[in-house]
Structures are given as C-alpha cells and as structure tokens.
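User: Fold this; tokens only.

Assistant: Input:
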Amino acid sequence: MRLKLKDINIPLGITLKILLLSIMGIVTLYLLYILIDKVFLHPPVTAIVPIDKRRTVSDVYIQLNVINASGQQGIAKKTMNYYRERGFDVVEISTADTLSDISYVIDHLSDTVSARNVAYAIGLSDSTIKHDYDTTLYLRASVVIGTDYFKLKPFQE
C-alpha cells in the first residue's frame, strides 16, 4: 500500500506557521542582500568635499570639468547632466583635440577621496585615476570621456 499526499493530514496551524517562516526567511535573505550590496559592493557616492580637504568656506561640492575625447557629439553634456543630478558641480565641458581610447579621471589637488567619488559615480575604477597636480586650479578633477563611453553608467540608463 502506497501512502498518498491526500492521506496525510497536516493541521492548518502548522501549515500556516511553515508558510510564514518561509516567507520571513526569504524576506530576511533579501534584506541581507540589500545591506551587503549598499555597504560593501556599491557604497553611496557623495559629491561633498571632506572638511579637511576644503580650501575655502564655499568649497563644499566637488567641482570638476568634463572633456569629451570620444569623437561623438553630446557625450560631455550627457555626462555633465548625470553628474549634476548626483550633486557634483560641473563647471565646464569641452572637447579634446585628440581622441582617447579609455575614459579616466585626472586628480588636480591630491584629493584622492574626491577623485575616487568622481570616478565611481560614472563607473570607473580607481586604476583609471591619473594625477596631475595643479593647485592653481579650483577644479578638484577632470573627467576625460573616451571612445569606451558606452561602458559608463550615464550611457547604460
């Protein structure tokens, strides 16, 4: 004689408890995933300059310029709008005389925290940050958008 599923009588209370525990377990795992993602994998980027790196009282937001070295029209403007939506102060956009195969960030003030935030905001790694210190500039960084622009966050949305 075979035992059939319909022959098993599980009380309704136990069935509901198992269902609720399963749902709570799934929700807990999902919330844990969000926590790990937001804290470790994709931490928030801030456009505010750290207090110890400010040169003037009004030097609150990271100021940068965007240089289009991709050869495509409108790339710098789209990148500027993307940064401004995130609180960065884009003071200038321009077009480079020569094309660049890769996109990168130029750190002008030896402020690695700001340079990392600028790079991370559009999806560039720390290895793309170049250092060209010029304390006469009021810009913290310059972003050069190369022919690989389609890999960057502003162009994937």
